Structures are given as structure tokens and as C-alpha cells.
Amino acid sequence: MKKSLSILSLILLLPQCLSFRHEKIFDPIKTASKKRINIAPEWMNPSVSYATLPQSKQLTLQEAIAIGLQYNPTLQAHFEEIGIRKSDLIQAGFYTNPHVESIFKLPTKNNDTHTKVEISAHFMLSDLWQVPFKKKVAQRNLDMKTHEIMSIILSTRKTVQHAYLNCKYQQEYLEIVKKITTVIQNIKDHIKYRYQFGYNTKLDYYFSLSKLAEWQAKIIDTQVALQISYTKLYQLLGVPINNDYISLTDSIVMPTVSISQQELERYAMLFHPDILIEQSKIAKARRS
Fold it and tell me: Is residue 169's pLDDT more than 80?
């Protein structure tokens, strides 16, 4: 019994210090992200504030999502916070530093030449049941922050994907509008030629001019929409905005997956980050 108490006292009196690898903090997030969207985001140096596009001037949807995650300032800020939560979890496992007192007793008798030193140490007994509770609360806080980051990752992925596909749509729509405008231009020229020989009326010719102007205006509108779409995409990717359009190689038509509504609902209930966050809050409240 005395030996057990001595070991326990020694553990409680040890200095409370510990270090952890910064990279290991993000392993659960990287693993979950890799499983969900096949991309593992990384914590980056805050001094690097903008991204660079591939030298090939071609960009796939997956590459766009990866760049968007890497240079998302909100996501990077949450990465900083999760390091703090991890530190809180480690600190919660520490016992209160002991209070050590030393008493030096000087010799009072003529024949006594030795100085006596008495050392006493005190620690908080309540740490024995409070520390495990604090660790559980800190773990819940870390879990909630992890789920929050996963929610931001999924939201960023959706936003970048929509922006990418919108750019692709505007590009393809512009090509279609230009082709239709070319056809209308040819029809207008044909009507003008026939009008000179009386085969078409002046009303036919004016109508063809009106239609041509209408589709030429659509070209301008689509070019503006395309410019706006690329501006939004570049902002999401954190790259400098310029007038050069990078080639988007993926198609608008996405592969389909056959899955039932019940299976989707079950998967959402099990893995949706918002639900996991609320479950962590409930578990934390029950232990408070």
C-alpha cells in the first residue's frame, strides 16, 4: 500500500509538460476528407496568401477543389484553432503543479553543526476526479471543432464545384450562342440577296436584322456572365484575377451513382457534420 502511494505521489509531483507534433493534429481531418471528397487538405504557411495555377493552363474539377481548400482563409483559420483545442486537451490531462516548501533549520546547540532541511509537497486531491472530467470535456470540444472543419471542407467543395461548373456552362453556352449568331448572319445575308430580286420583302429583311442584333447582344451578355463566373472562381481559388481564361477540362455532365433515398438519409444521419456537431454538444452537456 505504501509503495502504491509513493508511486502515485511521484506521478503527481512530476513536472507537467508535454509536446506534440503539429502535423499529427490534422490526421483525423485529412483522413475524413480523403474518404469523403478524395482530397486531404493541408495546413499552410500564413505568409502564402495566394495560389498559382498550373503551368499547363488546364484545370480539372478535382484540382480546383484542392486549390480552393488549400487557400481558403476561413478553413486555414480553423486549422489554427484546432491546434489550440488539441493543446487544451493535453493541458486538461495535467494535474495541478504541486506546491513545494523547503524549511532550513539552523543549528541551535553548540555541539550541533548540521543544518536540517525539511521538504514538504502538496497537491490538489480533487485533481484525481476532476482531471478525467476535464479531459472528456476538452475531447468533446476538439471533436466539435473537427466536425466544424469537415463541414467547411464540404461547403467549400460544393461552392468551388458550382463555380467551376458555372464557368464551364458559360463557356459552352457562349460557343452555342456564337454558332447560332453565325447561322442568323448567313440567313440575313441570304434574305438580303433574295430581297434584291424581289423574293423577300423589306419586312423579312428588317426582321432578320432584328434577330441578328438580338443574338449579338446575347453574345455580349454571355461574355459578361463568363467574366463574372471566372472572377468568382478565381476568388474562391485564391489566385490573381486577370483576363486570361484557364482551360477547364472536366465536362458539365457528371457521373451518376445509383443510390436509394433511404440510403442517402441513413448516410446523412450517420456522417453529416452538422449532426455530428450537435451530437457532440449533447454529449458535452450531459457531462457538464
Answer: yes
Percent of the chain scoring above 90 in pLDDT: 24
Query: Among residues 172, 11, 26, 28, which one has the least CA distance to residue 93?
Result: 11
In sequence order, which residues have a C-beta less than 8 Å from that of residue 232 and are 6 or more positions away? Answer: 163, 166
In this prediction the pTM is: 0.68
Amino acid at 113: T
Instruction: State the amino acid at position 182 in one-letter form.
Output: T
- pLDDT score, position 111: 57
Superfamily of domain 25-252+282-287: Outer membrane efflux proteins (OEP) (1.20.1600.10)
Is the dihedral angle over the CA atoms 229, 232, 236, 238 positive or is it negative? Answer: positive
Counting DSSP H helices and E strands in the chain, the numbers are: 8, 4
Strands 99-105 and 116-122: antiparallel
